[in-house]
Design goal:
CATH superfamily of the largest domain in chain A: Aspartate/ornithine carbamoyltransferase
Helix content of chain A: 25-40%
Largest sheet of chain B: 8 strands, mixed
Distance between the termini of chain A: 64 Å
Radius of gyration of chain A: 21 Å
Shape of chain B: globular
Structural class of chain A: alpha/beta
CATH superfamily of chain B: Metal-dependent hydrolases
CATH topology of the largest domain in chain A: Rossmann fold
Strand content of chain B: 15-25%
Oligomer: heterodimer
Radius of gyration of chain B: 21 Å
Order of helices and strands of chain A: HEHEHEHEHEHEEEHEHHH
Structural class of chain B: alpha/beta
Mean pLDDT of chain B: 97
Strand order of the largest sheet of chain A: 7-6-5-8-9
Low-confidence stretches of chain A: 1-14, 318-331
CATH architecture of the largest domain in chain A: 3-Layer(aba) Sandwich
CATH class of the largest domain in chain A: Alpha Beta
Strand content of chain A: 5-15%
Helix content of chain B: 25-40%
Chain lengths: 331, 433
């Protein structure tokens, strides 16, 4: 009879010490989100001072591991870490051992050998952050994994909406465009529903994933459905994800004609958001992008403080509201 | 059609087990004697007669299992499985016969490749193994293989498993020609333009996780096509690894109309749903994918009412480094030979979803009949193909316990109830545990 045997160390990981990650909005409670947004707000106040650097994470190391091109996310994570006085290291897939065929597991083990406190990862495949979490002892922050999740984007969007409206609960947000290929849409639906907003997804039939309503949102293929929303959130038309011959829509031209967000389709006072980078003239009319009601630059600024809050929260834990305030005092 | 290494018969007297053979209609505490590979006596008191005596008290003695769907990865990927390791795994799982799929490297599409496999099986197979040959050359779906020559060389049936026969015209020709061989076509039903790029069942879970979906209709559409062609040609078919409710409905309708179709289902499709994919564990990635609860319910119904007459492990070994990757990058397939009975006993029999006798029948006589093999029986005069089961023993599934060279099991770390204590294949004790 086979007896219990010693497992190879990496076969099934032993129960890890309590180590927190930010991988999916699904892992967060409403309290978690409120705590993170409050921390971000304290950091925003601290940044209004002349001396922008806080000593909070001195001696900590944050590694940015990016397998996909990114401007705003990678730069904002790097700056967030620097503003908190952490050491940062950025690794891009291009020009690294990844180019030589190294597996994600081996890259994770290599980086893990430096014992970083946080690994921020962006990867084109769903579940890459979990894999890194499994093979390293760092806190892992998902900066976008395939079409799955981009939780810091959703948090910065909540922050932006909260700053603009003073609340999220009870607002109506319409998310327009290529929901199927969008990790931003998935994270935002979960985050907005969690915080009590009403969400309507609008787009061409094949770009609204079957079964998405189970997340607690509505769907519509009629662009007029954006008319009732307080916020119109425009998704990037992900041309690079459109396989040849997939025929999600017959052409970008027809997409723009039917679902493009134009001044004519908005009513005065509706706020417009976009995660960037924008395809002006495709999913969003240039006049909409440049109008006063567009919150796109606010989103970018929010990205910095929200990512500071995430790094801070993961590395310090505890009652963050109090500690963040204390950190700001020290600074 | 089945090949194994030669070995000495073990003459046995198994005492006091609950003999349970649903086909023979036996369910009683009895002694069973085997001589020279044949069951020679079943009675309340059997003389030991110098035979090895096995204490069966508290255990179940049933016809050994037949697995109609195994990937032995030989030739080409002997790092993942060999005939030796795969048949040892089968023995540990209680199987007295397995059928291996031809999607190897190279594909089993010529008498030369098949002949080499038969030779190896005669040298090293612990448990009799049959080899299916491909329907189309290279499984490319363009030209039929030389089915008559392959059948003469020992092919147990024909399948392009792993890929569908996309062309309806070629499928019709295969149905017409296979009749000459007397073998069965085993069909992997998947409409490739609907499943393309899909990593999991299309539904609420894929919508949330962001995976490209592989919808149920990609399977059921092809099931309907193949049933229609089988009806038109009057030729029996066997449907591999059904996963969708609509496929089961189509099968039941066709069988009701007289089509000679059989079908199989895997333990994982009977026990799991697409909710399991939330773990992002690449060991729940398989083709066809895990589907919704209503699909699982339909598969259970089909299993109970006999429209689905076979349970198949679809044992699909993969190298560790290939599965230790993000879900989308990992290959499809999970192992299952060594855990099949315990999985079903734990998840279906214990909670009362399926009677034990049904599970035993669908793991033995059902799959044997689907391929025209003699069903294992606990009966005087029948070859000694027996499995001794402890339905109450618990054990923890661990990588180091596997005989298979691969460990891509969704059950790693889980505790199962039900253990195979002994497997007798063709009169030889091939496993004791």
């Amino acid at each position: 009879m086979a007896e219990i045997r010693v497992m190879r160390a990496d076969a099934v990981p032993p129960d890890p010490p309590p180590r927190r990650h930010l991988i999916s909005i699904r892992d967060l409670s409403r309290d978690d989100v409120e705590r993170l947004l409050a921390t971000a707000r304290s950091f925003e106040r601290s940044l209004e001072r002349e001396m922008k650097k806080l000593p909070t994470l001195r001696g900590r190391t944050v590694v940015n591991l990016f397998y996909e091109s990114s401007t705003r996310t990678s730069s904002s994570f790097e700056l967030a870490a620097k503003r908190l006085s952490a050491d940062t290291m950025s690794i891009k897939a291009a020009g690294s051992a990844v180019d030589k065929g190294e597996s994600l597991k081996d890259t994770a083990l290599t980086i893990g050998a430096y014992d970083p406190d946080v690994i921020v990862i962006r990867h084109p495949q769903i579940g890459a952050p979990q894999l890194v979490a499994r093979f390293t002892s760092a806190h892992v922050v998902n900066a976008g994994d395939g079409k799955h999740q981009h939780p810091t984007q959703a948090l910065l969007d909540l922050y932006t909406i909260q700053e603009e409206f003073g609340r999220v609960e009870g607002l109506h947000v319409a998310i327009v465009g290529d929901v199927l290929h969008s990790r931003v849409a998935r994270s935002n639906v979960q985050a907005l529903v969690l915080m009590g907003a009403r969400v309507t997804l609008v787009g061409p039939p094949a770009l609204l994933p079957r079964g998405i309503e189970a997340l607690g949102c509505e769907t519509s293929t009629d662009i007029a459905a954006i008319g009732a929303a307080d916020v119109v959130y425009v998704l990037r038309m992900q041309r690079e994800r459109m396989e040849e011959g997939a025929n999600y829509v017959p052409s970008l031209r027809e997409y723009t004609a039917r679902w493009g967000v134009t001044p004519e389709r908005l009513r005065p006072g509706q706020k417009v958001m976009h995660p960037g980078p924008m395809n002006r003239g495709v999913e969003i009319d240039g006049r909409v992008a440049d109008a006063a009601d567009a919150l796109v630059e606010t989103q970018v600024r929010a990205g910095l403080v929200v990512r500071m809050a995430v790094l801070y929260d993961l590395l310090t834990g505890g009652p963050v509201g109090v500690q963040a305030a204390a950190a700001v005092e020290v600074a | 059609m089945l090949f194994a290494r030669d070995g000495r018969f073990d003459d046995l007297v198994i005492r006091g087990a609950r003999v349970l053979d649903p086909t023979e209609g036996v369910d009683a505490t009895l002694d069973v004697r085997t001589d020279a590979g044949i069951v020679t006596e079943i009675a309340t008191k059997v003389d030991a007669n110098g035979h090895r005596v096995v204490d069966g008290a508290g255990l179940i003695l049933a016809p050994a299992f037949v697995d109609p769907h195994v990937h032995l990865r030989t030739p080409g990927r002997e790092d993942e499985e060999t005939i030796l390791s795969g048949t040892r795994a089968a023995a540990a799982g209680g199987f007295c016969a397995i059928l291996a799929m031809p999607n190897t490297e190279p594909v089993v599409d010529s008498a030369a490749v098949l002949g080499a496999l038969v030779e190896r099986a005669r040298a090293e197979a612990e448990v009799p193994v049959g080899f299916l040959a491909a329907i189309s050359k290279g499984q490319r779906g363009a030209e039929l293989t030389e089915m008559v020559e392959l059948a003469d060389a020992g092919a147990a049936g024909f399948s392009d498993d792993g890929v569908p026969v996309a062309s309806a015209g070629l499928m019709r020709r295969a149905l017409q020609y296979v009749r000459v061989t007397g073998r069965r076509l085993a069909l992997h039903c998947e409409e490739p333009t609907l499943s393309r790029g899909g990593h999991m069942h299309e539904g609420a879970v894929s919508a949330e996780l962001g995976f490209a979906g592989y919808p149920s209709v990609a399977e059921s559409l092809m099931v309907e096509r193949d049933l229609a062609l089988a009806a038109y040609e009057g030729e029996p078919i066997h449907l591999l690894h059904l996963s969708a409710r609509e496929s089961v409905e189509a099968l039941e309708a066709a069988r009701g109309a007289g089509v000679a179709a059989t079908a199989e289902v895997t333990p994982h499709h009977l026990c799991l749903t697409d909710e399991a994919v939330r773990s992002l564990d690449s060991n729940v990635k398989m083709n066809p994918p895990l589907r919704a609860e209503e699909d699982r319910a339909a598969l259970l119904d089909g299993l109970r009412n006999g429209n689905i007459s076979a349970i198949a492990s679809d044992h699909a070994p993969h190298a560790r480094h290939e599965k230790e990757a993000p879900f989308e990058a990992a290959p499809f397939g999970v192992t299952g030979l060594e855990t099949a009975f315990a999985t079903l006993n734990t998840h279906l029999v214990a909670p009362g979803l399926v009677p034990l006798s049904t599970v035993l029948e669908r793991m033995s006589a059902g799959p044997a009949r689907a391929y025209g093999l003699e069903p294992p029986r606990v009966a005087v005069g029948a070859p000694a193909n027996l499995v001794l089961l402890d339905p109450n023993a618990s054990w923890r599934v661990q990588e180091e316990g596997f005989r298979s060279l691969s460990a891509n099991s969704w059950l790693l770390g889980k505790t199962l109830r039900g253990k195979v204590r002994m497997t007798v294949a063709n009169g030889r004790v091939v496993h004791e545990g």
